């Protein structure tokens, strides 16, 4: 090559950026070397013919099989030990299986030879291989393909010689013979027996699936492929006994949560795989659809998603048989937590036998207590002590359990008592309480639990003179208690007064720790959170001055955090969340420009977070919240497009969370804010039908939350609001009766809120405005009535509502602008009601 | 089962010092891992679905990096270079075997040039591509590396830049020129 290639490369790049007709003249000016110019022009022509050339990466699939064959070489006719290979039976992740015959015998014994991947020739694995051979030799059961021999090939690759099984995979067998449910259960019982035998020899199969369970012509199952079975020893591990850690391959569709997480594999792992098998054989469908899911998504599905009962996916005639008991048996085998499954394969077999003999099965449908335990399962060790109390709480037997615990504690010496109580309270506060969040109906138990935990800690602080660590724990504890008592932005019981007291205590403990401990980031963060919540409830309570003071302190602390932690993503995420709340506070004071600045600062912090931090549940939630606040500001300023964009972005983030935690009501609830405001925007565009649709979707979610948790004032408030929006939409569409109905439902909830929260100005005003709305729609209905006698009772009711509203609102008028506005609109409705 | 990470490290070192037989051994060691991942993907995908090398190579890297005490596999550069080379070698061997089979059967290759509808890009003749890459290696070794990483390991412009330690702009420029030159080579337009 005579041309200067580096130069050609540079010229090509520049020329390619020019319009085609200018290239040649530009090149003539840029380069005097004619050969180089010709080369560049030729390249440009070639490039223009097919710019996409080679852009698609190589397709690697077709070569894979081919090369595997090459690596193994032609094996037919080869001698492996005393066996001559006849043909290939199959191949998988753990090697290739050949059919072979013993040499030198006329009717040579037919065997299957499993040759492990070449990498097994590594000397480090030789011991393990010998070890496994010994294990397999110990398995002797008619339901397990017999281990005959093992050795290494000339190249040093290990192989196993196993009984040759002429059979069909269990699923294909069942389909071919069109077996009914009972016959399938019988077949599975035989499989259980073989697996139980292996478990008695301390061998876990780890990869039970149809391909490894062949049914012989006589209809007997034979288990294959104990190739990845691992010896488990009873002295390893503490609870279940048979455990062993290790990284091995498995089949995702049949893999248990502990396997995909790389955790300890026990006999319960085989129970799980048998559960999947049972599910597939009985319903005809796998419990999860993992195809086409990226690995992380598949893993999440296996670990977090509860499969539907098999009867729900089975054909109708089969579903009738499965519903109830078999559903329960299958689901019990499939529990995420190994401790929730059947303790042994024999126990599973016991229930299957019971079902066959029409006796009651031991598996029962999951109860509330089961669900709670499952949630708590993530924090198993910490919760072990608290578990009994938690269950008692949920079951209502609170006092006895606590007394028992306290009595036990009092027998201890003071020092260990202090430690124990503290640890116990801490686990209640953090692990147990956290696992209860998002559980439907948990608001009241959460308050109880927090109340007790904080009470204990408080007692310790008084007795022992607190250290700052304890103070911070108390601050966090009181903050959580305050939130569940009456913070409007989370599930709460509407006890705003108690919430204020709790947040004040939280702030006080955090401040004391701050004074002592200086500028510890954790202390500032906790103090920040306390003031954040305190400002919110004080504003709810109508105490604007105190709220502003808390807000100011909040802001000061935030700036201190910002100054110290610019490079800590976790803290930055917290700062961003705080900024949103600060912005919200300013928004309440109608300082929209300042609010906008806070929100935008928060948003840029969220957007700059590293992906792993950003992807945390809490951060995604806060980010979505910031977007919603910005959306709300945009809508309020008339920017419908901008507002809708923000809400859609928020919706996408919240939907990610809902998909991640389908059982968690909080994330679902968070969707409703976006839905509701998108409805508002649609309404503003004149699209009332779309708006009503969106509001109804939001209503469905919130109503479900309220039904599950009837004391949750946040849900009451949320449902009431949606009825108000729907009432107004109905009025716009002149559907008077619908409007009346929505107002009535809103009023019921507003009444309940006043009862729950006490006569807070905001609660009273909200109730009065719904009374006014109902009165107005009653008057509309009266005016449209065709029946002359109908209007009178409607008007009477309207007048009574207006009078009640006036009585409660008048005393508030001096301080509350909202009250004065409401009085004005009451007056106009009163005039309508008064006209005959 | 996977090879011992320490073996891989040693072989990578040998290979980077110019011992070409180390590559052969690396192929043997890395290949089963790649194959196993490929097989898993194949069983998950619909039939006929192509397996992108990106997924293959990245997953192999992650798995191998997770094994062992950790330090050995921090060298992504080497790993991707090897993986791309492995995939290339594997595919070319496969193509060679298939071509031999075709010739043996006396099949005649017929190409349709008069195609009016949009069709997916015709599969590239891997043996020609391999020969062109070898020629490009003599002309500009960095450009041949870029093509290997982009096409056979499926890396993006940015990832390629990261692996080679050069700017994405350079990768982009070299990639376009290199692949265009390769196309000319494959069309027989480059005098030997």
Largest interface: A-B, 50 and 63 residues
Q: Ranges of chain B with pLDDT <50 over ≥5 residues?
A: 40-51, 66-74, 101-122
Structural class of the helix and strand makeup of chain B?
A: mainly alpha
Instruction: Count the beta strands of chain A.
Output: 13
Give the overall pLDDT of chain B as a whole number: 65
Largest sheet of chain B: none
Structural class of chain A: alpha+beta
Strand % of chain A is: 5-15%
- As residue ranges, the low-confidence spans of chain A are 66-72, 228-249, 366-415
Shape label of chain A: globular
Order of helices and strands of chain B: HHHHHHHH
* Overall helicity of chain B: 55-70%
The tally of helices of chain A reads 35
Tally of alpha and pi helices of chain B:
8
Q: What is the mean pLDDT of chain A?
A: 78
The helical percent of chain A reads: 55-70%
Description of the structure:
- The complex is a heterodimer of chains A (836) and B (192).
- Chain A has 836 residues and is of the alpha+beta class.
- Chain A has 35 helices and 13 strands.
- In chain A, the strands form 4 sheets. Chain A has a 6-stranded antiparallel sheet, covered by helices on one side. A 3-stranded antiparallel sheet of chain A has the order 7-9-10.
- About 9% of the residues of chain A have low confidence.
- Chain B is an all-alpha fold.
- The longest helix of chain B is centred in the middle third of the chain and has 30 residues.
- The relative contact order of chain B is 0.10.
- Chains A and B meet through helix 1, helix 3 and helix 4 of A and helix 2, helix 3, helix 4, helix 5 and helix 6 of B.
Task: Give the topology, please.
The complex is a heterodimer of chains A (836) and B (192).
Chain A lengths: L4 H12 L3 H11 L3 H16 L11 H12 L6 E2 L2 E10 L2 E8 L7 E6 L7 H15 L9 E6 L5 E6 L3 E3 H7 L4 H20 L2 E2 L8 E4 L4 E3 L6 E2 L11 E2 L12 H4 L4 E2 H17 L11 H10 L5 H4 L2 H7 L2 H9 L11 H12 L11 H9 L3 H16 L2 H14 L2 H23 L6 H22 L3 H19 L9 H22 L3 H21 L2 H21 L4 H20 L3 H16 L3 H4 L2 H20 L3 H21 L4 H20 L3 H21 L4 H20 L3 H22 L3 H24 L6 H19 L7 H18 L2
Antiparallel strand pairs in A: 1-2, 2-3, 3-4, 4-6, 5-6, 7-9, 8-11, 9-10, 12-13
Helix pairs in contact in A: 1-3, 7-9, 7-14, 9-13, 13-14, 15-16, 16-17, 16-18, 18-19, 18-20, 19-20, 20-21, 20-22, 21-22, 22-23, 22-24, 23-24, 24-25, 24-27, 25-27, 27-28, 27-29, 28-29, 29-30, 30-31, 31-32, 32-33, 33-34, 33-35, 34-35
Chain B lengths: L4 H12 L3 H25 L8 H14 L9 H30 L20 H14 L1 H12 L4 H8 L3 H19 L6
Helix pairs in contact in B: 1-2, 2-3, 2-4, 3-4, 4-6, 5-6, 5-8, 6-8, 7-8
